Amino acid sequence: MAYNLLKGKKGIIFGALDENSIAWKTAQHCYAEGAEIVLTNAPIALRMGTINKLAEEINAPVIPADVTNADDITNLFVKAKEHFGGGVDFILHSIGMSINVRKNIPYTENNYDFTHKGLDISAISLHRVLQIAMKEDAINEWGSVVALTYIAGQRVFPSYNDMADGKAMLESIARNFGYFYGVEKKVRINTVSQSPTRTTAGSGVKGFDGFISYAEKMSPLGNASADQCADYCVSLFSDLTKMVTMQNLFHDGGFSFTGVSQAVIEQMEKE
Ligand code: NAI
């Protein structure tokens, strides 16, 4: 059900690769709530993914941008401003990648070239996007930026590998940039810490099925789906959450504050 929560708002959504992507669902939900969208992803992802299908469905232009490339990001903001006839009201950063994870290199043996690349794509990119947005004055007053993160940025999940460090950094950048952008233009910046979700990025993590079923058993409400995450992002882009900024917001069915659940104890007793 739609409530017109984003009527008249304009936003840029990074990271819709295919129908499973959290960004894909968020774009659909924002559109349903009345927003106008510009979609963007890395050129290679545009070739491999199915973003044009989404673009047609929600009537959004697709502007390629590799988040590690400042010229690409500048071009994205310039073109988005042309398209909308002004700045944007919200941005979703839904981007993550680790070559160490992809190549199954254990955390203690990480290759630092891969680490640098992973941090650049998964964390520093948020800083780059915000820095260029500020320079181009591309986000309207009271705009809202959300980046997606995972609890491994705060607690140890061994197979999450160097993505955990990336998420810790991402959350820190949201907090710090949130201060400066708040003072400058009342722009709010938050991270949403989502339950494990079956997507291309998610499934790359070793033992992902175990992750999902453990989290499902641990969370009083069960795991949050990608569609539910999209709803939460809509609320954060809406005017109903104007004073929320610099937060890491758990969207995980209660997982993060559960020490142990009865379901997990019963599972352990079976052993
Ligand atoms: P996904 O694989 O659908 O999305 C990841 C996106 O990052 C892709 O669209 C990919 O093209 C994009 N990307 C990678 N390198 C890029 C680059 N250089 N420039 C621009 N874009 C680039 O997977 P998902 O799960 O939807 O991931 C979205 C976000 O949600 C990520 O930050 C991820 O870490 C986070 N997240 C995912 C969870 C999960 O279990 N799937 C749980 C918690 C957070």
TrEMBL record:
Binding positions for NAD(+) per the UniProt entry: 15, 21-22, 66-67, 95, 167
Keywords: Fatty acid biosynthesis, Fatty acid metabolism, Lipid biosynthesis, Lipid metabolism, NAD, Oxidoreductase
Gene3D superfamilies: NAD(P)-binding Rossmann-like Domain (3.40.50.720)
Pathway(s) served: Lipid metabolism; fatty acid biosynthesis
Active-site residue numbers: 150, 160
One example GO MF annotation: enoyl-[acyl-carrier-protein] reductase (NADH) activity
EC number: 1.3.1.9
Gene Ontology biological process: fatty acid biosynthetic process
Matching Pfam families: adh_short_C2
Reactions mediated catalytically: a 2,3-saturated acyl-[ACP] + NAD(+) = a (2E)-enoyl-[ACP] + NADH + H(+)
Keyword Cytoplasm attributed: no
Keyword Kinase set for record: no
Protein family according to the UniProt entry: Belongs to the short-chain dehydrogenases/reductases (SDR) family. FabI subfamily.
The protein's name: Enoyl-[acyl-carrier-protein] reductase [NADH]
